[in-house]
TrEMBL record:
Organism for this UniProt entry: Kandleria vitulina DSM 20405
UniProt keyword list: Signal
Cell compartments where the protein resides: Cell envelope
InterPro entries assigned: SBP_3_CS (IPR018313), Solute-binding_3/MltF_N (IPR001638)
Protein name: Solute-binding protein family 3/N-terminal domain-containing protein
PANTHER family reported for this sequence: AMINO-ACID-BINDING PROTEIN YXEM-RELATED, MEMBRANE-BOUND LYTIC MUREIN TRANSGLYCOSYLASE F
Location of the Solute-binding protein family 3/N-terminal domain: 29-249
Pfam families xref list: SBP_bac_3 (PF00497)
Protein's UniProt keywords contain Signal: yes
Length: 255
């Protein structure tokens, strides 16, 4: 009997050890990184987080059989947390074409939202006709987002801020010339601040797809998340959540 107990003890210890280092989730919690104040995608409402990204993430976690724990930091800090395995997944305007270098660092889920990029300027600014017109001009934006990439790619001198609200406030107050952001964020800002002195100077001709971001060692999780997103699309859940926050369905690319 003692021999059997020793064998079982050794087997369980080995199983636990292997489980901890297999790269697979063994706990009942999935940690998802979101920006703390990125309306209308993720923001706090009293003592809870709400927004399009938040609702999609909650539904995915539920269908995976996990409880969700949201980790809220700035976009660039969340990327570091993902790299360091402090979070399991990132939901923060991640566009798959962002990685233009040869070394692919992340896995991208099936897209769960799409949006246009816009350059927002003060109403009195009339010299921004092309994206390249922000070159060597003061801009504002959030580090770690796709819009930071577009800003730097076109030569903007970006002042980093914590959220899009601050970025657009700087434009409205003429502290910077422009801010590169997404159409849905701009529309939400104008709805809440109708007297703000901002306008859309330019909108991209392309509509961008956005995905959840995971590490390269999370193939199994990425496949499960992608399948759930496709099921949510087919059963109407994606459209329902989208229309809760927007006047249209941003879960589908209409190009």
């Amino acid at each position: 009997m003692n021999t059997i107990k020793k064998i079982l003890t050794a087997f369980l210890a080995c199983a636990l050890l292997c489980g901890c280092h297999s790269g697979k989730k063994t706990s009942g919690i999935i940690r998802i990184g979101i920006e703390k104040d990125y309306r209308p995608f993720s923001y706090s409402d009293g003592n809870k987080y709400v927004g399009y990204d938040v609702d999609i993430a909650k539904e995915i976690a539920s269908r995976l059989g996990y409880k969700v724990e949201f980790v809220t930091k700035t976009a660039d800090q969340l990327l570091k947390d993902l790299d360091n395995k402090k979070i399991d997944m990132l939901a923060n305007q991640v566009e798959p074409d962002r990685e233009t270098d040869k070394e692919v660092r992340y896995l991208y889920s099936t897209m769960y939202k799409c949006d246009y990029g816009v350059i927002v300027t003060n109403k009195g600014e009339n010299n921004i006709k092309l994206f390249q017109d922000i070159r060597n001009r003061k801009t504002s934006g959030v580090k770690g987002t796709y819009w930071e990439y577009l800003d730097h790619f076109n030569g903007g001198l970006m002042t980093p801020v914590e959220n899009s609200e601050e970025a657009l406030n700087l434009v409205s107050n003429k502290k910077v010339v422009a801010s590169v952001t997404d159409l849905m964020t701009y529309n939400d800002y104008k709805r809440r601040h109708p007297q703000s002195d901002v306008k859309i100077a330019l909108m991209t001709s392309l509509i961008y797809d956005f995905s959840f971001l995971m590490r390269l060692d999370q193939t199994s999780l990425n496949n499960k998340v992608s399948r759930i997103i496709m099921k949510m699309d087919r059963d109407g859940t994606m459209s329902k959540i989208s229309k809760k926050y927007f006047e249209e369905d941003i879960s589908k690319n209409k190009r």
